[in-house]
Design a protein that fits this description.
single chain, about 260 residues, mainly beta, five-stranded antiparallel sheet, four-stranded antiparallel sheet
């Protein structure tokens, strides 16, 4: 039975490099807590820490809640229906005294604009209006393609949601090779890509021996705080070498057979 002192919002989620955490958001006059389906706490925000509140309509027709805290950190929380967003807005304004803002999004459909990296966010603007943005921590790989003016970004491919459509990559075309290099380096320095989150340990060129994996299959493995990242190189028909990186949530390790050998 739900605690009557809390306001409860179901099917709310946050995004992270390994996918998303879906659960229940509980809000009272002091705290905002997101619990996953196993009742583990994934987000805890004190109301007194909130500095700014924004809402944004996202592509699934739901509202995204943006919280800016006094220490400069930001949280984006997804899955609010319009009625839930209105209820949440009233609650937040009553508790914090801050009036939530609805962010304007560019809807012209243009694909030419300005790319900015600010406060660990990648912002794409069209006619000075935000078209879309994402966190640098959401990017698992960033590099120039075989065409140096192009910068390719890859995003997590969550195996648990294989039946759903999801964005796994995008390519930005810059004005010159030097601009492409500058953008790539700026994104990497901001924390985007495989090495963005500092690995606890990295193992290169490990061979996996397992009945379901072809002999001699070689991967690189990075052990990170939030996930394990597998890295495999493939050579395409045009001779271009492509690096594929797959983040795997740490909980997935439980499903690895005991007789799988890495060496």
């Amino acid at each position: 039975m739900a605690d009557p002192t809390y306001t409860v919002f179901e099917n709310i989620y946050t995004l992270h490099p390994c996918g998303k955490t879906l659960g229940t958001l509980r809000v009272d006059g002091r705290l905002m807590v997101l619990e996953d389906l196993d009742s583990a706490i994934h987000l805890r925000v004190r109301m007194l820490e909130i500095k700014d509140i924004t809402w944004r309509m996202v592509n699934d027709g739901k509202q995204q809640l943006g919280l800016l805290l006094h220490d400069g950190s930001k949280h984006r929380i997804y899955g609010f229906s319009n009625s839930a967003a209105a209820r949440m807005s009233r609650l937040l304004q009553d508790v914090t005294g801050i009036e939530p803002r609805q962010e304007e999004i560019a809807v012209s459909g243009k694909t030419r604009g300005q790319l900015e990296v600010h406060d660990k966010r990648v912002l794409f603007k069209v006619d000075e209006k935000l078209a879309f943005d994402f966190g640098v921590d959401d990017v698992v790989d960033v590099k120039q393609t075989k065409h140096p003016r192009e910068v390719e970004l890859k995003f997590p491919d969550n195996p648990r949601e294989a039946e759903k459509d999801s964005l796994v990559g995008m390519v930005f075309q810059t004005s010159s090779s030097s601009s492409g290099e500058a953008l790539t380096q700026k994104l990497i320095k901001s924390g985007a890509g495989f090495m963005g989150e500092q690995a606890i340990a990295v193992f290169e060129e490990l061979k996996i021996l397992h009945p379901r994996v072809s002999s001699g299959h070689t991967v690189g493995i990075g052990l990170h705080v939030t996930c394990v990242k597998l890295q495999k190189k493939e050579v395409k028909e045009d001779g271009y070498e492509d690096t594929i990186q797959q983040p795997v949530e740490s909980t997935f390790l439980k499903s690895i057979p005991g007789h799988m050998i890495l060496r």
